[in-house]
């Protein structure tokens, strides 16, 4: 058990942080929702009702979709784009999918390589893009969930103001949907750009997100 | 490379629990995206039906009982009369319910005369916050409807 905890501590730590902050969001979001309800002379709702409402769901999914878009684009971009000196980049000249030998697939697979890396054909093609496929799928699903739940939340506000509701198609073109979307996207892209650039000149000893402290600034792709 | 998706290394296949939770939550979000429960729609619809029936039978008190307290207050302030009297002076066409929409704690019920009523869910049930509402000229979704009585 202790070995399991030690060897998986990175994932476990962030899963615990995720759950703790999601619970925290539920509580403060519930308080904020009911504050607005009172201000509009509407009925307050229970915590249980709030966490199963579209109001909570849209606040969660609008953040999820932007995170998975960030991963999707970064995974894809790092195949073809480079940043000299960054930990997060391949060295210039190595752009592209690389050779089968470098990627250890097919006849170049090792005895302990994943089965689908050795299989060849469609299986290897799928497995070779599986990370991108899964991240992109979760992004699309969470963005669609944001669309569906955001429409419900928005239309509740529309009715409170004695206005008409929007259809799903109309909401997809509404400023509220794109405001929620773009405010999340801008921060994700800034974070990526910051990380890529900062890692050129700054160091964090022992972190995989940093070059070794004494590694030259011009060195690309080295990890601490 | 940095920012890899994490895998749990147990000597077994990589854990998929986190992915299952994510996908289940996404599906739950999609399910919750519906337009209110059927109970909510029925209750909102019935409140509007009771309101218009009370008006047809000139039972102002019963009609006012379906209004929210803030709507009653606004009507009495504007008319200078008690709600039960003032509501019977309002010209509403009424009609059969043609559509009911519910989003969270807000609802809108359309009737066949072209009027709409807005409702809020209160502790005592669904109450009408606006009645006799019709779209103003221009794009209705960009502007509030014009209502005969509203909070």
Note down, in words, how this protein is organized:
Chain A is mainly α. Chain A has two domains: about 1-50; about 55-100 and about 130-224, no CATH class. In chain A, about 65% of the residues lie in helices and about 0% in strands. Chain A contains ten helices and no strands. Chain A has helices at about 1-5, 10-40, 45-50, 55-80, 100-105, 115-120, 120-130, 130-160, 170, 175-200. In chain A, helix 4 runs antiparallel to helix 8. Chain A is elongated. The model of chain A has no long low-confidence stretch (mean pLDDT about 95). Chain B is of the alpha+beta class. Chain B has one domain: Nuclear Transport Factor 2, Chain: A (Roll), CATH 3.10.450. Chain B is about 40% helix and about 25% strand. Chain B is built from five helices and five strands; from the N terminus they run H-H-H-H-H-E-E-E-E-E. Chain B has a five-stranded antiparallel beta sheet. Chain B is globular and about 60 Å long. Chains A and B meet through helix 2, helix 4 and helix 8 of A and helix 1, strand 2, strand 3 and strand 4 of B.
Describe the SSE topology.
The complex is a heterodimer of chains A (about 220) and B (about 150).
Chain A: H1 2-7, H2 9-39, H3 47-51, H4 54-80, H5 100-103, H6 115-119, H7 121-128, H8 130-160, H9 168-172, H10 175-201
Chain B: H1 17-32, H2 38-56, H3 60-65, H4 69-79, H5 83-89, E1 97-103, E2 106-111, E3 116-122, E4 125-134, E5 146-150
Antiparallel strand pairs in B: 1-2, 2-3, 3-4, 4-5
| Shape, per Cα inertia axes of chain A | elongated
At the first level of CATH, the class of chain B is Alpha Beta
Shape of chain B: globular
Q: Give a count of the beta strands of chain B, DSSP E runs of length 2 or more.
A: 5
SS field, number of helical segments of chain A: 10
Instruction: State the distance separating the first and last CA atoms of chain A.
Output: 28 Å
- Low-confidence stretches of chain A are none
What is the residue-mean pLDDT of chain B, rounded to a whole number?
82
Q: State which percent range the strand residues of chain B make up.
A: 15-25%
Major β-sheet annotation of chain A: none
Based on the coordinates given, report the CATH architecture of chain B. Roll
Q: CATH topology of chain B, what is it called?
A: Nuclear Transport Factor 2, Chain: A
What is the H/E string of chain B? HHHHHEEEEE
Strand content of chain A: under 5%
Structural class of chain A: mainly alpha
Q: What's the arrangement of strands in the largest beta sheet of chain B? A: 1-2-3-4-5
Distance between the termini of chain B: 59 Å
Structural class estimated from helices and strands of chain B? alpha+beta
């Amino acid at each position: 058990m202790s070995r399991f905890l030690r060897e998986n501590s990175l994932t476990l730590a962030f899963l615990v942080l995720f759950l703790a902050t999601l619970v925290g969001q539920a509580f403060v979001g519930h308080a904020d929702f009911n504050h607005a309800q009172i201000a509009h002379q509407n009925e307050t709702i229970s915590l249980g009702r709030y966490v199963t409402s579209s109001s909570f769901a849209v606040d969660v999914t609008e953040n999820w979709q932007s995170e998975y878009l960030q991963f999707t684009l970064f995974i894809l971009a790092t195949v073809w784009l480079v940043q000299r000196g960054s930990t997060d980049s391949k060295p210039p000249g190595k752009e592209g999918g690389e050779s089968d030998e470098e990627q250890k697939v097919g006849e170049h697979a090792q005895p302990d390589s994943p089965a689908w890396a050795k299989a060849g054909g469609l299986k290897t093609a799928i497995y070779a893009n599986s990370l991108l496929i899964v991240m992109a799928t979760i992004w699309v699903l969470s963005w669609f969930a944001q669309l569906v739940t955001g429409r419900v939340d928005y239309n509740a506000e529309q009715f409170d103001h004695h206005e008409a509701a929007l259809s799903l198609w109309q909401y997809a073109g509404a400023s509220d949907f794109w405001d929620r979307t773009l405010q999340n996207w801008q921060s994700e892209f800034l974070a990526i750009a910051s990380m890529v650039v900062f890692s050129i000149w700054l160091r964090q000893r022992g972190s995989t997100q940093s070059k070794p402290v004494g590694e030259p600034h011009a060195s690309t792709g080295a990890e601490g | 490379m940095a920012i890899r998706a994490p895998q749990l290394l147990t000597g077994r296949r990589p854990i998929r629990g986190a992915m299952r939770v994510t996908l289940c939550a996404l599906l739950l979000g999609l399910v919750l995206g519906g337009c209110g429960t059927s109970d909510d729609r029925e209750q909102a619809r019935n409140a509007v039906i009771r309101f218009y029936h009370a008006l047809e039978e000139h039972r102002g008190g019963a009609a006012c009982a379906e209004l929210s307290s803030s709507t009653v207050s606004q009507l009495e302030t504007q008319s200078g009369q008690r709600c039960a009297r003032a509501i019977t002076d309002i010209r509403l066409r009424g009609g059969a319910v043609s559509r009911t929409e519910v989003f969270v704690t807000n609802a809108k019920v359309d009737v066949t005369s072209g009027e709409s009523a807005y409702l809020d869910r209160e502790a005592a049930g669904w109450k009408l916050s606006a009645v006799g509402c019709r779209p103003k000229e221009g794009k209705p979704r960009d502007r509030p409807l014009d209502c005969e009585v509203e909070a």
